Hints:
This protein is of the alpha/beta class. It has two domains: 2-80 and 165-267, P-loop containing nucleotide triphosphate hydrolases (Rossmann fold, 3-Layer(aba) Sandwich), CATH 3.40.50; 90-163, no CATH class. It has helices at residues 41-48, 71-79, 96-101, 110-114, 120-132, 148-161, 178-194, 206-212, 235-242, 246-267, and strands at residues 2-10, 16-25, 30-34, 56-61, 64-65, 81-84, 166-170, 199-202, 215-220, 223-228. β9 and β10 form a beta hairpin. It is globular, with a radius of gyration of 19 Å. The relative contact order is 0.17. The structure holds adenosine-5'-triphosphate (ATP). Residues 11, 13, 15, 17, 35, 37-43, 204 line the site of adenosine-5'-triphosphate.
Amino acid sequence: xxxxxxxxxxxxxxxxxxxxxxxxxxxxxxxxxxxxxxxxxxxxxxxxxxxxxxxxxxxxxxxxxxxxxxxxxxxxxxxxxxxxxxxxxxxxxxxxxxxxxxxxxxxxxxxxxxxxxxxxxxxxxxxxxxxxxxxxxxxxxxxxxxxxxxxxxxxxxxxxxxxxxxxxxxxxxxxxxxxxxxxxxxxxxxxxxxxxxxxxxxxxxxxxxxxxxxxxxxxxxxxxxxxxxxxxxxxxxxxxxxxxxxxxxxxxxxxxxxxxxxxxxxxx
Length: 268
Ligand SMILES: Nc1ncnc2c1ncn2[C@@H]1O[C@H](COP(=O)(O)OP(=O)(O)OP(=O)(O)O)[C@@H](O)[C@H]1O
C-alpha cells in the first residue's frame, strides 16, 4: 500500500508545485492522475521515486517512510519501484532480452552484469514476462527494430523484472496511436491487478484514464481537486480539474487525432 500525506513541493525558484496532496493507494489499485499542464502531475510522481526531493509531507510504501531515505536506502527503494516512461527509455542497440534483463541490473553484481551473465532464474523469468506482455519470440530482436507499442511492452516487462512493490507510470501512451495506446493501458492495468501492485499513472488523455483506471485523481495548481471512481467524473468534475472550457478542447483534440489516424490507416 502507498500512503501519501500532505505532500508539498516548492521549487528553489519559489514555484509551489504541490500544496499538500494526500492519497492512499491499496495493493492492485490503478490510479490515473489527470490535470492541466503545470498542475503538478510529474512533480507528484517524481517525489515518490525521489527524482524530486519533497519539501514536506510523508510518503510510505508498505509502512516504510521514503522521504527520509538517503543514498544506499534510496537506491534500494528505487529498485523496488518500477518505472514505465513515455519514451520507453530502452537501450536501442541491445536486444529485447538484454533490455528486459536490465531491470535486474541493480540486483546482480557489477561484473556479472558487465559480462551479461545473469542467473538462470532471471533469464527464465524474462522469457515468462516477454510471453506475458505479448512479445514471445522477440527476445533476440534489437530494440530499435520494434514498433512503438512493442517498445512499450519491453519497457513494461523490464519494470516488472524488478519485482516492484509499486509501479509509477509517466505518460505511457503519449507516443502511441490511439488503438495501441488502449492496448498498452489495458496491459498495465491487468498486470497491476494480477501481481497486486499499486500503480500511479500520470496521463493527459482523459478518455484513457476514465476507460481503464479504477480511480481518478484530478490535480489543479498543486492540489487534489477530485479523487473518485471514473463513473463519478462528470462535466462539473472536469471543469473543476481543467477549468471552464479547457477539457472540452482536450476531448475534441483527441477525437480529431483518432479520426486522422483512422484515415491514415485506411490509406496505408
Ligand atoms: N525544476 C523545476 N523548477 C522550477 N519549477 C518547476 C520545475 N519543474 C516543474 N516546475 C513547475 O512546477 C509546476 C508543476 O509542474 P509539473 O511538471 O509537475 O506539472 P505537470 O502537471 O506534470 O505538467 P505537464 O502536464 O505539462 O507535464 C509548474 O508550474 C512547473 O512550471
